[in-house]
Give the backbone structure.
Amino acid sequence: MKTRYRNVVAALAFTLSGAAFAAPITIATDATFPPFESIDANGKLVGYDVELMQAICEEAKLDCNIIAAAWEGMIPGLIARKYDALISQLTVTEARKKTVAFSDVYQIPSFRFVARKDAGLTLTPEGLKGKVIAVQTGTPMDAYITKNYTGSTIKRYSSGSEPYLELRAGRADVHLSYEAQIIHSFTSRDEGKDFELVGPTLTGKDAPEFGEGVAIAVRKANTELVGKINEGLAAVRANGRQAALDAKYFGAE
């Protein structure tokens, strides 16, 4: 009788464990940040992070539903169980580690300033004193500028695309963002032909605000989901699917 009871309990525990992933996993992303995540002309979510997450879910056998969400509400929404995970070029920082768990790092981004070609700016705190710097609010760029450029006017925007409108309109002198995003969204397009990347390439090695790399965020208590995501990420690295996405979006070999 005891053996039969133990078997029933074990079977029930296995079933309940598997049930955590029986329903779709809701994954939020900020769809204003191409080439990583955006909405195409047909209303479809597209981009590097979107395709990477789809591949991870396939390899880990997770039923995933990726949705667009406002950047500022993503981490609060994750904590409030509105979402199960976030993928949106989220940098791993000590501050964020206090509130969420992260998967393994899947990319190391670089950050650059962009300004008008004839601006002649000196990209130091003293050189940008009195100038207007545009950043997306709540990002590593915002944290870095806020800490270091205290003599500048900082304009913060809720989406990743708004700062480019401000540059073109002359309402901002310079913008700091992910290098790949600046090139894809602005300088490689007609509307950005009068602008260029300026200043040094910055990474987490240059300032802690830029973090350790980007990863997928999950609630701290959901260690099983973190494990499944890492399992899928390891698979897409091993089978070449991530390398193919790197080549597709960034021209990497």
In short: The CA atoms of residues 31 and 93 lie 22 Å apart. The chain has two domains: 21-107+213-250, 111-210. The mean pLDDT is 91. The two ends are 61 Å apart (CA to CA).
